[in-house]
Amino acid sequence: MMSILRGISQIFFIDNPVTGAVILIALACADPRLALLTALGSATQTVGAWALRYQDQADHGLMGYNGALVGASTALYVGFTPTSVALTVVGSLACIIVHIALQHVSEQPPLKRFALPVSTAPFCAVSSLMFGTLGHLIDPAPLSSAEGTAGFGLGIDNSFSEIVLADGVITGAVIIAALFIGSWRIGAWAVGGSVVSTLLSGLAEHGFSETSTGLHTYSAVLVAIAIGAVFWQDRPLSMRLVGAGVGIVLAMSINQLFTFTLLPIFTWPFLFAMWLVLIAGGFVPARAIKDAPVEAAVGA
Q1: Span of the secretion signal (predicted)?
Q2: Is the pLDDT score of 262 beyond 50?
Q3: CATH number of this structure's domain 1-141
Q4: pLDDT at 196 > cutoff 60
Q5: From CA 44, how far away is CA 90, in angstroms rounded?
Q6: Which of 230, 272, 13 is nearest to 124 (CA)?
Q7: Percent of the chain with pLDDT strictly greater than 90
Q8: Residues 6+ apart with CB under 8 A from 56
Q9: Given its phi and psi angles, is residue 206 left (phi above 0), alpha (psi -120 to 50 degrees) or beta?
Q10: Residue 141's pLDDT band (boundaries 50, 70, 90)?
Q11: Given a cut of 60, is residue 291 above it in pLDDT?
Q12: d(C-alpha 293, C-alpha 7), whole Å
């Protein structure tokens, strides 16, 4: 049970079953069926990984979060039916194979030097194959708001809700609380990324009505966490701030490009932006990286 909850918390790079449980509560606030399919996805991938003897990764939730997201995407596109349960199970098991394959590729030269994480790539690949063009045919009718402070605040909350394909003020607020329970550092970088991306999106959209849906900013939140709090922990704060800032802009730009395709967006913008920043960072000379305190690792 703890590993299943860790799988849910690892969506946000946190290895903490309490955080996973609180995220499930947040999802239940949006729709209990969404929470059930998310938990089923994490459980299926975790058990499958155990069966294939990926015990350590499964124990820490690293073979659970992609399945959890597959469950969430199935809830969005299919609802809660016997078909959605079957798709969640099959898709979550497929994530194991994709994860292993991508992990193998990332460990080969010349990619090995960049230490690119698999992250949510299995979820994106599997769910894109399952749902294809449905990403642009189904309107989840996210909450929106008028201009001003209300729209800005809702945009912050929805930038967290949309990461797990949910929506709403309560869901977003509970997820934010869950992150701070698991890691104040990840919580801080996540909120910072949300504020910056929401402001940028509001400026680009000339107001917060569209931005308040969170659909333009959720990938930016994940990039801020990944660069600022997880993968560049050994780098100076100034470098992490620049990297996270570049990643946020890249994620939002890639998100916009995806709107011109027939593919579901999911967290593809986050993945591409994070990988590009990590690759660029791999070319920074070691002497340019000054000694900085190494922070405790959280998630992977």
Answers
A1: none
A2: yes
A3: 1.10.3430.10
A4: yes
A5: 9
A6: 272
A7: 80
A8: none
A9: left
A10: low
A11: no
A12: 28
What are the CB-based long-range contacts (under 8 Å, 24+) for 282-289?
282/113, 282/114, 282/115, 284/239, 289/234, 289/235, 289/236, 289/239
Residue 176 has pLDDT above 70, yes or no: yes
- Distances in Å between the Cα of 138 and the Cα atoms of 14, 79, 80, 285 are 31, 12, 16, 46
147-284 has the same fold as 1-141:
yes
User: What tokens appear for 81 in the block?
Assistant: 């039916």
What is the CA 298 to chain-centroid distance, rounded?
A: 15
Let me know: does 218 contact 159? Beta carbons within 8 Å.
Answer: yes
Burial class (CB in 10 A: 0-12, 13-18, 19+), 240: buried
User: Which tokens go with 52?
Assistant: 């294939």
One-letter amino acid for residue 95 of the chain: C
Report the CATH superfamily, name and number, of domain 147-284. Ammonium transporter AmtB like domains (1.10.3430.10)
**Residue 191 scores a pLDDT above 80:** yes
pLDDT, one tens digit per residue, over 81-108 is 999 999 999 999 999 999 999 999 999 9
Parse the chain into domains and list their residue ranges. Answer: 1-141, 147-284
**DSSP characters over 27-65:** HHHH-HHHHHHHHHHHHHHHHHHHHTT-HHHHHTTTTTH
SS3 (DSSP) at 170: helix
Residue 157 token pair: 């909350």
pLDDT at residue 290 in the model: 63
CA 244 → CA 209, 228, 267, 274, distances in Å? 25, 6, 16, 9
Q: What's the pTM value of the predicted model, to 2 decimals?
A: 0.92
